[in-house]
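We close this part of the discussion by returning to an individual protein. The encoding preserves chain order, so positions in sequence and tokens coincide. The sequence in question and its structure tokens are set out directly beneath this paragraph:

===
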Amino acid sequence: MEAQGLMRERQQLEESIAAIRQLEQRLTDNVELIAMGEEENDEGIVAEAETALKELKVEADKRQIETLLSGEADSNDTYLEVHSGAGGTESQDWAEMLERMYIRWAERSRFKVEVLEEQGGEEAGIKSATLLIKGHNAYGWAKTESGVHRLVRISPYDSQARRHTSFASVWVYPVVDDTIDIQVSESDVRIDTYRASGAGGQHVNTTDSAVRITHIPTGIVVACQQERSQHKNRATAWNMLKARLYEAELEKREAEANAEAASKTDIGWGHQIRSYVLQPYQLVKDLRTGIEHTTPQEVLDGDLDGFMEAALAHRVHGKESDVEDVD
């Protein structure tokens, strides 16, 4: 186990060093291109190199933010849960919009994403969903999304076209790899099986293949209905439970290490982190960092990196990031 950990750390360091050297080489090449273009009075070459330098700065800034991803589980894959709040169809529709947003973000980030569990709403939307997002630093990037997300819009379900406010919560926790040993006593859990609901074809509704595990001491509940096999769903649900317990321990350690910052790491239902306003004006605002985006549709299509970068810096430094508005 220790050897595997060292090999993984070595690979990550080698990849980081190679990326930095590549940035340095691209910087040198484009600076030389600008000098050559100026000597030859070729404005086209100069403009092209300047554009490349701007793109290089964006990439370098992202690399700098990634240096903040030094937590114990930041490099791991991650689970991401979405739960609708009170309000029936309105909140369930909002929860489905959030699920789509995170799927789009994962795809834009070149992560692999799987839907492990989804409970459909009565009329529209979803009551809950669990995503598995796979890729290097997936948890590190997504972890600051935990909290309550608020939507303000003219409801498509209101015949009088009134403005509604809806809430949904997001919970992010890391996949536990083989190097982390989490012990869970079977006497501390209750396991329920049920018929799956939501998308997935007719086969998902024919047997009690879905599995829900409740950890009685903490009240943590996880569920999986991805596979036809109850055995496979049970194994996945056990892994999810261990991951939730591990994430709770990480939060506890962080709070103990920095009691003054405990409030900003609170990811309970009452902790609202971001507001999405579609009417009467267009604005997405992160309430922790003050970062704003004036095109909500781009955010809902997965443009979340600016918010995540600012939240990471805020979480580490305990103050507002220097990252500017992301619109």
The two ends are 44 Å apart (CA to CA). Residues 2-66 form one domain.
